[in-house]
Amino acid sequence: MKKFFSIVLSFVMLLSVFAISPLDVFAKESGDFEYSIFDGTAEILSYNGTETALSVPDALDGYAVTGIGENAFKKSTLKSLVLPDTVKYISESAFAYCKNLETVNLGNSLESIGDTAFYDCESLNSSIRFPSSLKTIGDSAFENCWDMSYAVIPENVEEIGYCAFGFYYELDSENNKYYDYKRSDFRILGYENSPAQEYSLKQGVDFYSLDTGASAQTADGMDFFINSIGEAEVISYFGTSRTPSIPSNINSYPVKYIGRLSFFGTDIKSVTIPSSVVEIGEWAFESCDYLAQVSIPPTVKFINRGAFGYYYEDGVDYSYINFKVCGAKKSSAETYARANEFIFEDIYTTVISLEKSSATLYVKDNTKIKASIKNPSGKTTYTSENKKIATVNSSGKVVALKAGKTKITVTNNGVKKTFTVTVKNPKLNKTTLKIKRGKTFKLKITGKVGKATFTSNNKKIVRVNTGGKVKGIAVGKANVVVKTNGLKLKCKVVVKK
User: Fold this and answer.
1) 402: which DSSP letter?
2) Average pLDDT of the segment spanning 367-372
3) Minimal CA–CA distance to 186: which of 168, 170, 165?
4) Is the dihedral of CA 464, 469, 474, 477 positive or negative?
5) Most buried among 41, 135, 228, 410, by the most CB within 10 A?
């Protein structure tokens, strides 16, 4: 009994030495949270809820939440998380193995992120932003975060731990040991002569300077780096579309560059590259196994090594068989395709093909120019060299007006093709006719358009019906006038005994 009281007395004395209330020692519950109290504030020990989108409260039972404890949310099913501004620290492995966690808002008072705090949060993307209050980031804090392609490090951060960003942990089958491997597609965005730059240099991670007013933005499932002169570069793609369209601008900043390894290993089937882009970085689309061809606008002036048509395997870059590059002739696209022995298809040079290059028409007749346009741009126009001979409308319908020859020019995107039109007058099979009295002859018109009328200027000598049948009535001479195609044709008729 004495021994028991001695132990109790020692425990009470210990509490008084460290000024810890008995309440601080034991875990408490508040809703789905389990927490402990230290120095009058709460540290979350665990979360037992099922929410996938969670906003952590700033207080539990009146105690301000200032910390997230070790393993507190480990392996949870969270997809999005918002921490209150009261939180000052995140402990070791607090959110480790939260494989569904995509977005995190850290709050504005956070000072430290512990070792492996977000380890293996493979869905966590680059939209996470670190507050200016942050001082330390622990070892492997964001290792194995595959959808996170860059991190913006505030100027006040004093320490970044080993493999905190841009690394993954994997078994080496030869040695049967786990090792940390650097990701070649990760970027650190930070300030020069800072721990962020020092980390990048030591760990071999790409570094983008923020000293000149540059920034990072996220939109359309893509991360962008905005440089000091207001030009945007795509630095990663984390979207779900298999046919993404790269925007021509992001929040008014023109998208000029597609960054190195920015689409590496994604399952896209096609990609739309805007005409604002001038350069495509090394291995930008490497290991995109479903991307069989790409269309590159002629505005792209530089295509760097392995940008398209390659995959990476066992430390070696291989080219895809039958990969196709579509672009303009004499462009960087054609140069890249030829240099890498890929199929090249010209999709920008406009080619006009005509079913026929000429036609012969009679006055008042018409025809339609049948033109096929490969790689058209804008409207196709038709113009007549001589509108008195033939006219043409906007759809290529040609109307013959007067005997002669003219050219119709078909134009699209500055490319021209000519169509020659020869116009003839209609004619009779006889312009002079001798027949015996009582006999008949059928006048025929070549090139008749529409109806024709036949009249005799002397019906006592020659008669003609509506079908052009001429009959000699009496010995003498007469003229048969034929009106057709808007013209008058004449046949001189001599009637004999």
Assistant:
1) S
2) 96
3) 165
4) positive
5) 410
